[in-house]
Amino acid sequence: MTLVNTSRRRGAGGWRRRRERAIALLLLAAATVSILTTAGIVFILFWEAVGFFSQVPLADFLAGTRWTPLLEPRRFGVLPLVCGTLIVALGALLIAVPVGVGTALYLSEFASATTRKILKPVLEVLAGVPTVVYGYFALTFITPMLRALLPSTQVFNAASAAIVVGVMVLPMVASLSDDAFKAVPRSLRNGGYALGGTSMEVSLGIVLPAALSGIVAAFVLAFSRAVGETMAVTLAAGATPKLTFNYLQSIQTMTAYIAQVSQGDVPAGTLEYRSIFAVGALLFAMTLSINILANRILKRYREAYQ
């Protein structure tokens, strides 16, 4: 009987080891597919970009102030697209970061459990709205309001795109900031209250600085999200590559240009077609640089609690 039980235990142990090994192999396969997919995308992106830069000097691409690759005379200065992308992203952050951090601070420090239970899901609903709906919302609601206040506003304008992208990234900023506030230990708050601080003083003087690294992460992710947004800015901002900082005029972002050329009107393999890979490579380099900078900032200001 003892020999039978020992044999059963060995059989069960062998089956468990084989199952764990199979799970480890599946996880390894999933990680390998992800890495190969990323490597393939980056390779195709830069391979086509190299074909573009063999015909267009890199200095003309980066420093040129006119972008007319589909019209004669063709110009490939990408600065108008970069300018359009940045003013939309920065305008969106001016809306999303203060409102998102304020909302998260209220939910974390001041709201009752019932209020939090109601407001948090309502806020997260905004993240589930399709981006094309945001684009039509900007075109049919925000733009008429802006034109009523400022008659010089064009039908397609950067302000509407910035506002609607700010609303889109607001749930991300609020959710990440809320997690950062909740990660602050209760002992820090109690220390502030023990010194006679009010709720507002403790929140702004202790909790907010202690959660700075998480807020910076939310800021960077929101910026990357705003830079990469396509559909809403295509509908709201128009398709006029223009080197301007006037939010009331039509502009074109880098993603909007890629979407425009990818519709199939431009033959594959031509210089115009390869220009979307050059713009995509520059966009990739920009977002990668932002993420690297953010990691350095996070390491510099990261707070460790026990």
Shape: globular
Helix content, binned percent: over 70%
Distance between the termini: 52 Å
Largest sheet: none
Q: What is the strand content?
A: under 5%
> What is the element string, with H for helices and E for strands?
HHHHHHHHHHHH
How many beta strands in the DSSP annotation? 0
Write down the overall mean pLDDT: 86
Rg, Cα atoms, Å: 25 Å
Poorly predicted regions: none
Number of helices: 12
Q: What structural class do you assign from the helix and strand content?
A: mainly alpha
Give an overview of the whole structure.
With 306 residues, the protein is mainly α. It has 12 helices and no strands. Helix 5 (131-149) packs across helix 6.
Which key terms come to mind for this protein?
306 residues, mainly alpha
Describe what is shown at a glance.
The chain has 12 helices and no strands. Helices cover 75% and strands 0% of the residues.
Q: What layout of secondary structure does this protein have?
A:
Blueprint: H1 2-53, H2 58-63, H3 79-110, H4 113-125, H5 131-149, H6 158-182, H7 186-194, H8 199-210, H9 212-228, H10 231-237, H11 254-261, H12 271-301
